[in-house]
Each structure stands twice: as C-alpha cells, then as structure tokens.
C-alpha cells in the first residue's frame, strides 16, 4: 500500500527537527604539548619553595613574614602541578 504525501512530508519534518535539535559536538584541543613542561615547572617551583623555606626561611624577609603559610604555598604548587598533569593525554 503506498504512503500518502502528507505522511512523507511529516516524516521529513520530523527528521529535520531531530537533526536541528542535536547539539554540535565540541572538539577537544588536539595539542597538549604544553602540559608536561608546565606541570614539571609548577611542581618544581613548589618543591623549591619548600626547600628554600626550610633551609633559609628565617634569613629571607618576606618568607619569615609569611610563617607557616609557606608550607601551604609549596604544597599548593605541587597540588596545582598534579591538577595540570591530569590534562595530559
């Protein structure tokens, strides 16, 4: 049994509506070459901050003013490096 013209046009409208309703796919950035040097640098800066604080902290004016906040700064750098490392593919 042949289909009616209205049936075909309704199906075509439905297909067009479905295609328009689909959200466009967002493509992830393909190049992540910046990630390894960045997380290594940020992590090393955190470690170096802690080493300098423990070795020469009292003799450096701004470090002695920060007190125990230096530990948070150093650990924060290492945590930021870990967060950046999760972006690596």
Automatic annotation (TrEMBL):
- Listed Basic and acidic residues bias regions: 1-23
What does the UniProt entry say about where the protein is found?
A: Cell membrane
Task: State the InterPro entries in the record.
Answer: CrgA (IPR009619)
Topologically, how does it sit relative to the membrane?
Answer: Multi-pass membrane protein
Question: What UniProt keywords apply to this chain's record, in alphabetical order?
Answer: Cell cycle, Cell division, Cell membrane, Membrane, Transmembrane, Transmembrane helix
Q: Where are the transmembrane segments?
A: 34-56, 68-88
Q: Where is this region: Disordered?
A: 1-29
Give the top-rank taxon of the lineage listed in the UniProt record for this protein: Bacteria
| GO biological process terms held by the UniProt record | cell division
Output a single Gene Ontology CC term carried by this record: plasma membrane
Known Pfam families for this protein? CrgA (PF06781)
Role summary: Involved in cell division.
Q: Which family does it belong to?
A: Belongs to the CrgA family.
Q: What is this protein called?
A: Cell division protein CrgA
Origin organism of this chain? Friedmanniella luteola
Q: Which gene encodes it?
A: crgA
